[in-house]
Amino acid sequence: MSKESLADTSTSSSVQLRNNKNKRFFKKNLLPYWLLLPTISILAVLTIFPLAYSIYVSFQRFNTFGEAVGFHGVNNYADVISSITFWNSLGITLLYTAGVVAVEMVLGLALALMVSKENKVMSYLRWILIIPMMLSPLVVGIVFRLMLNADFGIVNYMLTSIGLPAVDFLGNSLTAFLSIMLVDVWQWTPMCFLIALAGLQSLPQDPYEAARLDGASKWQILRDITIPLLKPVLIVALVIRTMDALRMFDQVFVLTQGGPGRATEVISFLMYRAAMRFSDFGFATAGLFMVLVVTILLSLIMIKLLNRTEKTGGY
Amino acid sequence: MQVRYENINKKFGNVHVLKNLHLTVNDGEFLVLLGPSGCGKSTALRMLAGLENPTSGEIYIGGQPVTDMDPKDRDISMVFQSYALYPHMSVFENITYPLKIRKVPKAERKKKADDIAEILEIGDLLKRKPKELSGGQRQRVALGRSLIRQPNVFLMDEPLSNLDAKLRVHMRGEIKRLHSELGITSVYVTHDQTEAMTMADRIAIMEGGHLQQLASPDEIYHQPANRYVGGFIGSPAMNSVKGRLNVKTASLDFGTFTIPIDQEWQEILEKRLSGQDIYLGIRPENVRVATKPAENSIKGEVYVVEPLGKEVITIIRAGGHTIVAIVEPDLPLKMNQKVWLTFDEQKLHMFDGKTEEKVV
């Protein structure tokens, strides 16, 4: 056998070996993807398809019967941007979000600090405090609508029985706005409370004892030790609550229907009306995508903040 | 500043952790609370700090009762076993936090931090966060934070136990040196007898919530108050053999062997314990081992030989008892070899058979 043919044989056998190896490699390495397939299929049907479809819808023109009548380009987005009601609703939504998230964070942390001590009374209190979160938002909305009713609501009954004038809570722009905020605070403070409590209870105790010996007062311990150590947890609560509040719909739907006038017409409700009442699905989905952009931007900022605290602090 | 515990009791539920503790730490003294885990030494320290409240009794600092006083008002500083640094603050911020609380101007804080950092050799670490430091560095930062404000009393709760052996020896010396320079009354908790013996002015040995003995390291070693202290201090531990005094033959009878006792011991023992059980305590270095029989020597057999270089720990079985002896390395001993033991009569310790207290 010549030298060349020897070399040929060795090359061809090494190619075959490599092919076999590749086959084995793929066989072995495809297994995880096969295992993931059911999950990916469910996600595709329930999440990816609706998302892709709504992007498609946002570029369509709809007639008054709610039928897609053709490609509309970016006109839906242009309509949204040039719509005064959109900017009005965005303003209301941001104001509402800022208000409720701030109050819920402060209240949640305060409650968590109050009941973080381990004893029986506190453990019952903790249970009671998270009940609002377990209720359906729709039910909560209805209960508050009854309580805040101008004529026979219990709140006005109590106000008048101590000699104060009755208030038309849901009929006045300011009080209607404050009322939907109140309902949100009542229902979702427990979430901030729960997250803050979990954070508090997992904090190391040593730095607290050290701070007490270093001469720190309770307020100084809260400012210098608790809040900085709790910052990563608080930012997580902040992100979750901000995303939720930006999408808020239920309270407005049950309590005010966006009124009086457009005083409580948050973005979700505006777009719901555009879609369900005026059958303008293109405008509605385009508007909601704009909100999505705002939500993503705000979340990114907060997550960046979170990463920074994790890099500089913590264990 | 003088520290005084008066009739202190502490219970956690049904567990009585400290029982009638009376203890005085003199001004400027370095007192070590020594004992095994669960003996109540850390609880005693935490009560002095104000982190635990006594169930009954009173604690005084500089003559003032402080039992109901908040930790921040006691002007005490403490180094914790886990160092308890503030994880989100830099080394500089950690060290100067006690001064920041007291509203000391920033320039002064910086100067003091630089001074302390120089003493503790952590000047180049001031900008780092605790998680970027090694155990030894963290320990020094914790020391720095405690020392920066010249407290009334300086407390340390097993500060060296998380360090490696070499660093522990180094820091032991450093802490002793710092104490002698600053002269602050210090209470130091440890379960390590070497730390206690090397650092303390006086040692308080605790066991089962009781103070067993309070004395200088030298006295604790040479005149243990009871069998527990004798056995706890010293490595290898003191030999302790139960026997009975035989007045007629002027000897101690251990069943399988007897040893004669000198006139002095005879008088002491005859007065108090004639016919009663006693424990004979003898430290391993006071046991003489010979390969040939001598007068009054006890016959035994070598069980294990443990050479340490400068000396050899030899475990010997003699008449049903196990006796540990430290012998010179040039004495050739082998396992199962027959040997003869004698005890240094000047170094014998006698403990009551029942109370286990020292017989005086």
TrEMBL record, chain A:
Pfam family, any one: BPD_transp_1
GO cellular component: plasma membrane
ABC transmembrane type-1 domain span: 90-302
Residue intervals passing through the bilayer: 31-56, 94-115, 127-148, 174-200, 281-303
Predominant localisation class: membrane
Membrane topology: Multi-pass membrane protein
Top-level division of the source organism's lineage: Bacteria
InterPro entries per the UniProt record, alphabetical: MetI-like (IPR000515), MetI-like_sf (IPR035906), Sugar_ABC_transporter (IPR052730)
Annotated keywords: Membrane, Transmembrane, Transmembrane helix, Transport
GO process annotations (BP): transmembrane transport
Subcellular location as annotated: Cell membrane; Membrane
Family: Belongs to the binding-protein-dependent transport system permease family.
Name the record gives this protein: Carbohydrate ABC transporter membrane protein 1, CUT1 family
Source species: Alteribacillus persepolensis
Organism lineage: Bacteria, Bacillati, Bacillota, Bacilli, Bacillales
From TrEMBL, chain B:
Protein's UniProt keywords contain Membrane: no
UniProt keyword list: ATP-binding, Nucleotide-binding, Sugar transport, Transport
SUPFAM superfamilies documented for this protein: MOP-like (SSF50331), P-loop containing nucleoside triphosphate hydrolases (SSF52540)
Single GO MF descriptor: ABC-type transporter activity
Alphabetical list of Gene3D superfamilies matching this protein: 2.40.50.100, Nucleic acid-binding proteins, P-loop containing nucleotide triphosphate hydrolases
Bilayer-crossing regions: none
SMART domains referenced in this protein's UniProt entry, alphabetically: AAA
Biological process terms in GO annotation: carbohydrate transport
Official protein name in the record: Multiple sugar transport system ATP-binding protein
Species of origin: Alteribacillus persepolensis
Taxonomy of the source species: Bacteria, Bacillati, Bacillota, Bacilli, Bacillales
